[in-house]
Write a structure and sequence with these properties.
By secondary structure, the protein is α+β, with helices and mostly antiparallel strands. It contains 3 helices and 7 strands.
């Protein structure tokens, strides 16, 4: 377990311990590495243009995939969702859909909510990293979340803990 993940967070954490690294460290390292590459090749105009294009395309991909990641944990009656600054309590009744993008390495799971509870209408998290032989199979967290959403039919309201 990483030092920034050591605090108790819900009954069972569904997010990977690498979430913090992918959300904050990977985008920062990417920006610095491209900056160093651009400065070191500043004399060659073609290379600088190529680096700028790669930086822009990959930067947009990182912003869409890594930055929205949140930490997700299960409790008896709700999800705990955190962006590492703020935590929200989301009752299972607000979950309308759970999907997973299995085409990228992070295999992010997206939870769609019936309404915005402070963390947005979608929650994206990175599940535990597992060795995969069949990339098209969904992670067990997807089915578990679908089951939890289907088993809680009472109307309740999201609140901050």
């Amino acid at each position: 377990m990483l030092p920034f993940e050591s605090r108790v967070f819900g009954d069972r954490t569904m997010s990977s311990a690498w979430t913090f690294c992918y959300k904050f460290i990977v985008p920062a390292l990417w920006a610095m590495a491209i900056g160093v590459a651009a400065v070191s090749t500043f004399s060659n105009e073609r290379v600088v243009v190529a680096i700028a294009v790669v930086w822009a395309v990959a930067g947009v991909a990182l912003l869409r995939v890594c930055v929205p990641l949140k930490r997700v944990s299960l409790e008896d009656d709700a999800l705990l969702v955190s962006n590492f600054r703020t935590e929200w309590r989301v009752p299972y009744t607000l979950i309308t859909d759970v999907t997973q993008n299995r085409w990228i390495k992070l295999r992010p799971i997206t939870i769609r909510l019936a309404r915005d509870v402070g963390c947005g209408e979608t929650v994206v998290f990175m599940p535990y990293v597992r060795l995969r032989w069949h990339f098209r199979d969904e992670d067990p967290e997807v089915e578990e979340l679908r089951s939890l959403a289907g088993n809680h039919t009472a109307i309740s309201h999201a609140q901050r803990p």
